[in-house]
Amino acid sequence: MKAVYSDQAGGHDPKRFVLRGKFAPGEERPERAERLIAGLRAGGHELRQAEAFGQGPRLAVHTPDYLRFLEESAAEWRALADASDEVLGNAHPVRRAGTMPSSIVGRAGWFMQDMACGIGPGSWAAIASATDVAVTAAELLLGGERAAYALCRPPGHHAYRDIAGGHCFLNNTAIAAQHLRAAHPRVAILDIDIHHGNGTQAIFYDRADVLTVSVHADPSVFYPYFWGYPHERGEGAGEGCNLNLPIPRGASDEVFLSAIDAAAPTIRAFVPGVLVVALGLDASVEDPFAGAAVTTDGFRRAGQAVARLGLPTLFVQEGGYLSPSLGSNLQAVLGGFEAAA
Ligand SMILES: [Zn+2]
Q1: Is the peptide bond before 154 cis (omega within 30 degrees of 0)?
Q2: pLDDT in tens, 17-71
């Protein structure tokens, strides 16, 4: 399958985030994309640069105030006295029962859920380019391709309509799904990143036209902690259109694959015209976040399981951090899919 990327992704290079109360080195590094591209080359995939689609697809999912904040905050932050080189909120509203302030420090808290979303001078161009990657790849499917892969960096599935979180700013998966809605009355999203896709879930929570399914480590002991539980089924028109399949931390290939298989009947019953796979690779046994113990062969079988759904499929890169197997795990998922499709 064809793969889309952007050479602007490297401009986003967050240096630190807060982990267990300490500043830790940024895990969502430019080198991730380099290793993923190496995996794509090894898999023989044709690579192409993203085209620019402007703000339209972003505005179909995110709010104008939030987009303005992402675009302008780095410059405003630098004008603060004695500030770090990256925007990082440290005062957040409880349950949003407040008013968006004018202060850049206040707005950073307003628009950021946690302290894992540093914005530097080159971040906006990269964040925007990731959505172009997603839309370019979605266009390949609209043009008749059976499958495509979008190397989106930074990732997106923790991003809400107007909140960043967990290394995510704009929800590339949601933007791709919304773009595909133009041609398909129903779109299904299957998120196999080891973290729950809380932003994607929230964006479509009250909608009947987009099914959201997430396989992830038990959120009672793993980020994003507050969402990802089985009782979250959607609301209003979207009641029944969200399915969470948490698995124990440290889960093996068999447990991971069983959860993907358990998602299949719900996806089939929804009768989607197209499937978007939120493809995190951080379920890997070698991933630094240690959420699960999936092997490269497990990822190959995950690709086969996705292919058995028999749907036009767009893979959108989510998490998956630096490890020796990052590139080969991507190659395994896409190769498994193609061999079984
Ligand atoms: Zn993740």
Answers
A1: yes
A2: 888 888 888 889 999 999 999 999 999 999 999 999 999 999 999 999 999 999 9
Nearest to 321 by CA among 212, 200, 195: 195
Cα of 81 from ligand 1 centre, angstroms? 34
CA of 319 to the centre of ligand 1 (A): 4
**Set 158, 179, 184, 195: catalytic member:** 158
Q: How far is the CA of 226 from the centre of ligand 1 (A)?
A: 15
> DSSP character for 55?
T
323 CA to centre of ligand 1 in angstroms: 14
Residue 117 Cα to ligand 1 middle (Å): 14
Alpha-helical (H) ranges within 95-204 are: 104-111, 123-142, 172-180, 198-203
| Pairing assessment for the beta strands 16-19 and 22-25 based on DSSP bridges | antiparallel
184 an active-site residue? Answer: no
Q: What is the pTM of this model?
A: 0.96
Residues of the chain with pLDDT under 50: none
Q: Tell me if residue 102 falls in helix, strand or coil.
A: coil
Q: How far apart are CA 21 and CA 114, in angstroms?
A: 12
CB 296 within 8 A of CB 173: no
Residue type, 246: P
Among residues 156, 133, 153, 164, the alpha carbon closest in space to that of 69 is found at 164
Give me the domains of the chain, ranges plus CATH numbers: 2-340 (3.40.800.20)
